Amino acid sequence: MNILFGVQATGNGHISRSRELVKALKRNGHEVFVLFSGRDPDKLWDVEAFEPYRACTGMTFAVKRGKVKYLATLAQLHPLTFYRDITGFNAERFDLCITDFEPVSARIARRYNIPSIGIGHQYAFKYPIPLARRDPMAMFILKHFAPAVYSIGLHWHHFSYPILPPIIPTMHTNGDAPGKGKILVYLPFEDPDEVQNLLRPFSDHHFYYYTATPHSVDEDNLHLRPFSREGFLHDLITCEGVLSNSGFELASEALHLGKKLLVRPLAGQLEQESNALALERLRLGTVMHRLDAQILRTWLYSPPGRPVHYPDVARHIAAWIGTGLWNTSDKLVQEVWSQVDMHSFSVSF
User: Fold this and answer.
1) Are 120 and 13 in contact (CB under 8 A)?
2) The whole model's pTM is what?
């Protein structure tokens, strides 16, 4: 098939899991054209696997100091550009649209009557999974931001619904042992100075902090790193724990590798707040709702994590897409979860 694949590029998690699925689809003989939105094209890193691709404006949320700013979000919208991105796209050759919560491709599919499949964590929220709070506006956005005819939700547990495990990228550990006291830090929505002030006093730990720095900086126990997929994966594999916001993909990779996890959910963002709640209920991670030195201290000296080994979900989804039987996913869901050791979870619903 000729497939239009939309990737929400606001967060690196969408890019990470979409990379695996795009590669799996190409291995199965499909032609895939990728449409990115939500990020300046000059700030797209390590996207060679997506070629051919195009980047457009799309829609994204404004964030300041770890909190979603709705008025600023409205102020930065470009509805005319958004409309032109949809109507100006030549979609005649495509047999299918797949969207990882990407709004432009979803609306191109609707406009040109192309079958569409939504694949991603956000599509799990159509089921009554752990939800941090009632928020009609946030649920409206989750439902209508990137609508699709068919959908596959992803989560760390199925919660007794037809939800698949997360898509984990291929990671070659090469037998690397975790560095003692090494912590990977990824808090892109926080003030970098506040993060560094939080970390600096814990001198017996080394923090590899991926942030907006033009080059690597090593200063005592702080190691600032510019984002690169290769370097990030190496530090993820060789760390003892991960301190991050509660985005879905990085937490999934950390759980898969058995890294202990401390998350600070993005305030006002229902998805991240609900992810934090799910981690607590599954007893897979620790949550702090602000940058809290005492919680960090307790977590740093807590026992190591335990791995949750997820299978090659991208390969299974790509095979399912190739069948054309998109109106049912029950067999797919059962097959994939049968490969997960459910004893990995201490479920507390």
Assistant:
1) no
2) 0.91
Residues in the chain: 349
- The single-letter DSSP state of residue 146 is S
* Topology of domain 182-300, CATH: Rossmann fold (3.40.50)
Distance between CA atoms of 129 and 8, rounded to whole angstroms?
A: 22
Residue by residue, pLDDT tens for the chain (349 residues) are 999 999 998 877 889 999 999 999 999 999 999 999 988 777 777 788 899 999 987 766 555 555 555 555 555 667 888 899 999 999 999 999 999 999 999 999 999 999 999 999 999 999 999 999 998 988 998 899 999 999 999 999 999 999 999 999 888 767 667 889 999 999 998 999 999 999 999 999 999 999 999 999 999 999 999 988 889 999 999 999 999 999 999 999 999 999 999 999 998 889 999 999 999 999 999 999 999 999 999 999 999 999 999 999 999 999 999 999 999 999 999 999 999 988 777 664 4
- For residue 279, the SS3 value is helix
Token look-up 């050791």 returns 341
- Under CATH, to which class is 2-168+311-344 assigned? alpha beta
Q: Report the DSSP beta bridge partners of residue 69.
A: 62
SS3 for 67? strand
Single-letter amino acid code for the residue at 262: L
Distance CA 143, CA 101 (A): 10
Q: What element of type H or E holds 168? A: none
Strands 116-120 and 53-56: unpaired
Q: Residue 181 region, left (φ>0) first, then alpha (ψ -120 to 50), else beta?
A: left
Which pair of tokens denotes residue 160? 């007794």
CATH 3.40.50.2000 maps onto the chain at 2-168+311-344, 182-300
| Bridge partners for 222 per DSSP | 207, 219
Spatial CA neighbour of 8 closest among 96, 68, 98: 98
Tokens 């998805």: give the residue: 271
